[in-house]
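#struct-help
A.M.: can someone run this one for me? Single chain, 266 residues.
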Amino acid sequence: MISSTSMAGKEGLQWIYLSPHPDDAALSCGGLIWEQIQAGAQVSIWTICAGDPPDVPLSPFAERLHQRWQIGRGAALERRQEDMRSCQRLGASFQHFSLPDCIYRQSSDRQEYLYDSENAIFGPIHPDEAALIASLSEEIAAQLPAWASLVSPMALGGHIDHRLTRAAAERLGRSLWYYPDYPYVLKSEQEIHQLYQEGWESVVFPVSPAGLAAWQDSIAAHASQISTFWPNLEAMQAAIKAYAGQNGGIRLLAENYFQLTNLQFE
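D.P.: on it. Structure tokens below:
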């Protein structure tokens, strides 16, 4: 494991974080994103599953999630607005892709919801979405600057949309950074240690007290999602502080670390 301050940001560097849902990059990397921007880097969060659901009745599973989030039919719009507030608190730019969250996606004949339960969203990719990885990858490639550092979720925990996002990023055929998906990483350390044994490297980026506060504020902006993981904002703030302290900051992983650093600083 490598500790780094120099790569937290550099004048002229551009970092793009792929976020499966509007809150994922903030949850996992908010403190690092803030530190990079303070150091002079340009940072953008690209949210892959940010589109509106089709204008049809939602599945009972999606309806239950909306009730927990305390938002109605306009949940996708509300979550995009939360993301804009979150990015503003970090100083990052944003981009929202048109693919809806998996809880809204239907079969091509609209006879079934593809992911209509907690088990389904952590299960196999539905055959109807076999071509989705390629189309997502092409959409990312069409807008991706050649010189940007691209950061993908590791897809720890196995959520469908996290796996799709990582697969689309890897299909680009370029070197990637990976962030451990919070909070799934809390139960996935063994998986990360296995990657270390296979030759992967991780870099720990320190997060200052101001960066921690910005990180917590960026998560708080995703107000509808707090109840997914915590009973209240105070519990979230304590959990993020503990996570940052546990790692000494925020980790990014790379399979070809030296290639990435040579490309950035030669």
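A.M.: thanks! Residues 26 and 219 are 6 Å apart (CA to CA).
D.P.: also worth noting: Residues 1-11, 261-266 have pLDDT under 50 and may be disordered.
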